Amino acid sequence: MARVLISMPEEFLNRIDQVADVENRSRSELIREALRTYIYKQKIRESTSAARNADILDAMLE
């Protein structure tokens, strides 16, 4: 697995560590899940936007 170095505010890292501790997970595991969720939601937004644009185009062509 590739390794990535990121910078973030100390408070943000502390919050990540708190959540990871409560959920008995590693910091890396928690961040990977957050990124998977973000990417999934972004794909939904893109497909919803594309569908909306197609509907608008259809309405304009009618």
Describe the model.
- With 62 residues, the chain is mainly alpha-helical.
- It has a domain at 27-62.
- It is 77% helix and 0% strand.
- The protein contains two helices and no strands.
- Helix 1 packs across helix 2.
- The chain is elongated and about 55 Å long.
- The N and C termini lie far apart (51 Å).
- The model has no long low-confidence stretch (mean pLDDT 89).
What would the keywords be for this entry?
about 75% helix, mainly alpha, about 60 residues, elongated
Which secondary-structure class do the elements indicate?
mainly alpha
- Give me the count of strands: 0
Per the principal axes of the C-alpha atoms, what is the gross shape? Answer: elongated
C-alpha-based Rg, rounded:
19 Å
How are helices and strands ordered from N to C? HH
Oligomer: single chain
In a few lines, what is going on in this structure?
The protein is an all-alpha fold and about 60 residues long. Helices cover about 75% and strands about 0% of the residues.
List the helices and strands and how they pair.
Elements: H1 10-22, H2 27-61
Helix pairs in contact: 1-2
